[in-house]
From TrEMBL:
Gene3D superfamilies: Alanine racemase, Lyase, Ornithine Decarboxylase, Chain A, domain 1. InterPro entries: Ala_racemase/Decarboxylase_C (IPR009006), De-COase2_N (IPR022644), Orn/DAP/Arg_de-COase (IPR000183), Orn_de-COase (IPR002433), PLP-binding_barrel (IPR029066). Residues 63-311 form the Orn/DAP/Arg decarboxylase 2 N-terminal domain. Keywords: Pyridoxal phosphate. It holds the Pfam family Orn_Arg_deC_N. The keyword Transport does not apply. It comes from Guyparkeria halophila. SUPFAM superfamilies: Alanine racemase C-terminal domain-like, PLP-binding barrel. This is Pyridoxal-dependent decarboxylase, exosortase A system-associated. Its cofactor is pyridoxal 5'-phosphate.
Amino acid sequence: MAQHDTPDSATGEAILERTLGPLADCWGRENGYLSIDGQPLSARLPQTPAYLYSRRCLDMAVATLRAALPESIGIHYAIKANPFPPVVRHLAGLVDGFDCASLDEMRLADEAAAPEQKRSIAGPAKSRAEHRYAIEAGITINAESVSELERIMVVARTSGRRARVALRVNPPFALKGSGMHMGGGARPFGIDCEVIPSLLDQRETLAEGGIDLVGLHLFAGSQSLDAEAIAAALDGWTELLREWQQTTGFTPAELIIGPGLGVAYHPGDQPLDLAALAPAFARLDEQLAALGQHGGIRIETRLEMGRFLVAGAGIYLTRVVDRKISRGTTYLLCDGGMHHHLALSGNLGAVLRRNWPVVAVDRLDDEADDTVDIAGPLCTPLDVLGKHQPLPSLAPGDWLGVLQSGAYGASASPTGFLSREPAIEYLI
Ligand SMILES: Cc1ncc(COP(=O)(O)O)c(C=O)c1O
């Protein structure tokens, strides 16, 4: 079932401002068109479909987050959100480390990162090759099960090296208001928190098996726009850490926390209020400093995230190929679709498909006086780019831009479906 957002007549300019807030200013705009160096981007870019990413947006997203964080809390970029190498290389100059989810992501992180930047790998069912690579490169392995610890020990033994390991914790709570729950209840991710104390008690045995237990990985969910819920999850984590310190004497030297910071994708979404979260970050810092003091070490804390850093820095560009009316509904049929942007079509974990912020890139000042359905080139009714979407009246050849497309776009889509060309990616 599709949910139709209430149509409004906002101009593209207003959609940019309300969706991206201060990041909107990172996108060039002249005389009602999105621009690159003063020229319409539709004239500068050779073709659609394409993803366009902005360095200035990446800079601003990281700077905005840093401004809300105590200095001692670092930022790790989760490459899974956007593994386009130029984006990862640019972020390497801005963040403190990387979270990887595969062998190729580890290789990319190694190529992009400076030696002092920490890297970790998370994910269930890691392969032997992934364990081996991580151990040899000194990458922290976030262990997702007790049996993974056993597998890591085997690889450490055969490679004659020690493994840096963090226990990924499946918390007793889920991050409320998050688009994707990844904690609480039974999960393939992480070790149930009730099992953690017994593992912490066995750290000497793990050390004998070649595992240096360097810390914990705490991730409860993603895509939350609710500052209170995120703050409550952070408090929940420190509560657990305090309890474990009391019962097992374990103080993590390294903590990787996924706060689940979300971005506003749909009409009516209120962007996350970072200023409202700043006190929670400060409290986290104070509480961890106290725990560290009690344990006689300094806890190195990193927040791990993807979309918050990269979503606003990406626009997906597609061109209208055909305009047709079917039994009263006007369709814009475009050259881009769900094979490039699965999330836009509502098929990447959404319960109900909602419209995204779509603008006519050369008509930013024009009122939306048309209401259209937007479809891609695939012969499936799933290939939806917009339903009852308000836009200026457009014709074949006109370009559309989908905002907030920098995360989970090209790499999270079925690019092989129907054997069509991939979208070209650019970083400007
Ligand atoms: C372990 C882990 N870290 C980080 C992320 C990134 O989440 P987000 O892009 O919402 O920040 C995910 C997303 O699923 C994840 O599973």
